[in-house]
Design a protein that fits this description.
It is built from 20 helices and 40 strands. The chain folds into four domains: about 325 residues, Alpha-Beta Barrel (TIM Barrel), CATH 3.20.20; about 190 residues, Rossmann fold (3-Layer(aba) Sandwich); about 130 residues, Jelly Rolls, CATH 2.60.120; about 120 residues, Immunoglobulin-like. By secondary structure, the chain is α/β, with parallel strands linked by helices.
Length: about 850
């Protein structure tokens, strides 16, 4: 067995910032790692790993057939059985791409209601990708691995490396952006850091998991070149360079069968070409069968929905196939070897196994450092940012994300955070009593908004308030077309405008105050609303106390509701367009439009914290469009008109439209920021930290500009990946489409000059390496960091290749006036494409152009070389 390349997440001498004191000033703390400790740890692991294969064979030889079977499937929601007589412990897994998930009951999805399962809530991997910094990936992985060990977990189900092919994809926020090279370079230090804590990483979801729309049934059918160049490099790097101990398969199908039992993906590539020695395990409730899963390389089956764990495909059914000779014992032995290899490698039978730490100040500071490095300054006209504290006496804060906490939403990525600092609280922590901060909740007064989630008592398993969504064949609501969907608020739009749809929305509503509530229904079509089974309004038979305006576009109805009661709301709709159910409730949550616009005009600073939430970015469902929810665009537009110096600060893991982009002076993208989000955001807004993040995704002007939509390749049946290798920015460049903000874009409070590009040679032969060097100078007035991006163009290619392909990057910190050299190496693989004729990587002879820049559109230096 090839030994892992061990790394230690904290370098021998590193200074990081800890939490601010009560004056808002950062305090420094030396977190140097003792050299002797590193040496002892290295020796301990070397001794353990040197005997792994011998111990695997010894244990395997002592096991009965039934005991072997017990290691290939779950014995509870998140565990694999122990074999006590052989000293094999139960193996525990946990969700956790950005924090160890709270404890659930052994045999159900219900919370175990522990009071000691709080974890550090880290920024999601999109923020790590936006840092363009392997050190941040290492820091992220170290915290995750250490806290998983402290919770006695053996496998942490992350990181995720599926690519952001489509802005609508619900899980983009969990992953590392749209570029295969960037994802590959960041997943390796993440995996190494996790596993240095005696925890196995589980890189997911292998492979082609690029939509949640019918995620268990959609059939992914990319051509081989697209598969190899775009969707596999991050997994390949995790295996070959990161030595990941486990990989989680995808929900989707691949050319007709589930990805977990695809011979080509698993046996030919993963375990064949790449020589993977670890475990392939399923996600929960995946569509497999016993024979194909067994023969084509699946090692552990998790989460299948059957009555008993013995009924799993790789349980009793596999045992029977082996006993009948249909599946060779050698196939089972290979799976068991892999499971044992993981257990022994991470020290499950080692008395010297690391114990981990959790919720220590260094972990919380890591969360703050990661998001501070990942925040992207998209626009900063007139140098509006950073805000000058000495010139500000009043700040108006608005927007749905000002006080919203994100840790317990999104699906399997939810985290039970010890605490979470909201953007508003971060401002208060930073400014104290020196500035008057006014908070208002704004909405567009000219339209009807959905019932606010504050009133909703029903929660989806992803942690988000939900309306159960059922689709019917006809208006009688008797024949169900689909009943497993949900939406986050009381607004529904048909998927194809003009085509009549029949739906039912259902949820629990708990009023915040007792009194008269004025229901407001806006629609095109027909609808009825039932409360606790009693019809209170309908468009067919309007009662005397129902007021109608226009041509049945707006219906209002008053009803008395009590704050002491929870009501079942059921909205039935049949129509070709949309329906919105809103209301006016006692003790209104929202400020009148005239009031907040007046306040904006007089405020010294206006900050709108908007964007998405985990009602939009979440597992199990994709977004329906790229618009900001709940008419935020209208509010932002009016705020900017009232006060041109309004700062728009957006959260989210996927692109959104910005119809107000030309009017806005300052736009900041903050992703989801983890538990220290608010403090880090305040650091950025007031210049304590100079923003250095760069977009790991392209922000389109409109959804129709993206490849999958433009090529009509997004549906519930199959994904053909018609754009081929032209994912993300490559598509925009090929098509000549200007995005809203390009891949790699991100501004700073200082400026950087590129000069003196040098190549180590003007020719490159066979397996040689070529080094590109450039001088970077900080020409501004403050310290900052620049991400130098290297893009490569194959000028003489015999196949269609992107105009630019990211093939290197480096983040350099410079003081004001300081210069530094950045060196980036290129090798034969960087020059290569997947040749379908030879089924191998091919670097063709000819001329290549190197482009260095601050984004894919902002190229500062160029040079050419020839490959022979």
């Amino acid at each position: 067995m090839k030994l892992p390349n061990l790394v230690f997440p904290i370098t021998l001498s590193v200074i990081v910032l800890t939490a601010c004191n009560n004056t808002g000033s950062p305090q420094k703390q030396d977190l140097s790692l003792d050299v002797k400790q590193v040496s002892q740890t290295d020796g301990r692991l070397s001794d353990r790993l040197s005997t792994v294969e011998e111990r695997v064979e010894s244990l395997l030889a002592q096991m009965t057939l039934e005991e072997k079977i017990s290691l290939t499937h779950a014995n509870a929601k998140f565990s694999i059985a122990a074999i006590e007589r052989l000293g094999i412990h139960e193996m525990w897994m946990s969700d956790g791409p950005h924090g160890v998930r709270h404890e659930i009951e052994r045999y159900s999805w219900s919370s175990a209601n522990w009071n000691n399962d709080y974890s550090t809530y880290l920024p999601p991997l999109t923020a790590v990708a936006a840092s363009w910094d392997p050190n941040m990936a290492t820091l992220h992985g170290n915290v995750l691995g250490s806290e998983a060990r402290h919770r006695n977990k053996d496998i942490i189900l992350g990181p995720g490396v599926n690519l952001a092919r489509l802005p609508l994809y619900g899980r983009n926020f969990e992953y590392l952006g749209e570029d295969p090279f960037l994802a590959a370079k960041l997943v390796v230090p993440q995996v190494k850091a996790i596993q240095s804590n005696d925890v196995a990483a589980s890189v997911k979801h292998y492979a082609l998991n690029t939509q949640e729309l019918n995620r268990t049934g959609v059939d992914a059918k990319p051509d081989e070149r697209t598969l190899r160049e775009v969707y596999l490099p991050a997994f390949e790097a995790a295996v070959k360079e990161g030595n990941t101990q486990t990989i989680m398969g995808a929900y989707n199908r691949y050319y007709g069968t589930n990805a977990n039992q695809s011979k080509h993906l698993v046996m030919d590539i993963l375990k064949g070409e790449w020589g993977y020695k670890g475990v392939l395990l399923t996600d929960w409730n995946v569509d497999i069968n016993t024979f194909d899963a067994a023969m084509n390389g699946l090692d552990i089956e998790m989460g299948t929905e059957v009555e008993h764990y013995d009924d799993y495909f790789l349980a009793q059914p596999l045992l029977e196939m082996i006993q009948s000779g249909k599946v060779p014992v050698a196939v089972l032995d290979d799976k068991v070897r892999r499971v044992l290899r993981v257990q022994l490698t991470i020290g499950m039978m080692d008395k010297q196994r690391l114990s981990g730490q959790r919720n220590i100040s260094e972990h919380h500071q890591a969360a703050r450092d990661i998001i501070a490095n990942g925040v992207v300054l998209l626009k900063n006209d007139d140098k509006l940012l950073p805000l000058k504290e000495e010139k500000i006496k009043t700040i108006l804060v608005l927007g749905p994300n000002a006080e919203l906490l994100h840790s317990q939403g999104g699906g399997s990525s939810e985290v039970k955070a010890l605490y979470e600092v909201s953007p508003l609280q971060g401002l208060k922590n930073r400014l104290g009593d020196k500035v008057n901060i006014t908070v208002m909740r704004a909405q567009n007064g000219a339209t009807i908004s959905p019932i606010a989630t504050d009133y909703m008592a029903a929660r989806h398993w992803t942690g988000t308030p939900q309306w159960e969504l059922t689709r019917y064949k006809d208006g009688q609501h008797k024949t169900i077309l689909r009943g497993d969907d949900w939406i986050a608020n009381s607004a529904y739009q048909v998927s194809e405008p003009g085509q009549v749809e029949h739906v039912r929305l259902k949820t629990l509503i708990k009023p915040l105050a007792t009194g008269s509530h004025t229901l407001k229904l806006v629609l095109e079509g027909e609808a009825s609303l039932l409360i606790d089974g009693k019809q209170v309004l309908t468009t067919k038979e309007l009662s005397n106390h129902t007021r109608v305006q226009g041509s049945l576009n707006l219906i209002e109805h008053e009803i008395l509701l009590s704050a002491d009661q929870t009501y079942t709301f059921e909205l039935n709709y049949s129509g070709p367009a949309s329906v919105v159910l809103g209301w006016e409730a006692p003790g209104a949550l929202f400020t009148a439009e005239s009031e907040y616009l007046s306040a904006a005009k007089s405020a010294d600073a206006v900050i709108y914290f908007g964007g998405l939430s985990h009602a939009d970015d979440r597992e199990a469902i994709d977004r329906t469009d790229m618009k900001l929810p709940n008419d935020q665009d209208t509010v932002i537009t009016k705020l900017i008109a009232a006060n041109p110096n309004t700062v728009v600060f957006l959260n989210g893991g996927s692109a959104v439209e910005m119809p107000w982009v030309e009017q806005a002076k300052a736009i900041v993208w903050g992703w989801y920021g983890g538990m220290e989000a608010g403090n880090a955001y305040a650091d950025i807004l007031f210049g304590d930290v100079n923003p250095s993040g760069k977009m790991p995704i392209t922000l389109p002007v409109r959804i129709e500009d993206t490849a999958a939509i433009a090529l009509n390749d997004y549906n519930a049946v199959e994904s053909l990946y018609k754009e081929g290798v032209f994912i993300g920015y490559r598509w925009f460049e090929q098509q000549g489409i200007k995005p809203l903000f390009p891949f790699g874009h991100g501004l700073s409070y200082t400026q950087f000059e590129y000069s003196d590009i040098q190549l180590s040679s003007d020719t490159l032969s066979k397996d040689e390496a070529l080094t590109v060097t450039v001088k970077i100078t900080n020409t501004g007035q403050r310290a900052g960091s620049e991400v130098v991006q290297l893009y490569l163009h194959d000028i003489d290619a015999s196949v269609p290749r992107p105009l630019k392909e990211l093939k290197g990057f480096s983040k350099l910190a410079l003081k004001a006036g300081e210069s530094g050299l950045v060196s980036i190496s290129l090798n034969k693989r960087d020059l290569s494409f997947w040749d379908i004729k030879t089924n191998d990587w091919l670097a063709e002879s000819g001329e290549f152009e190197v482009m260095l820049g601050s984004s894919v559109e902002d190229i500062r230096q160029k040079a050419k070389f020839t490959y022979r």
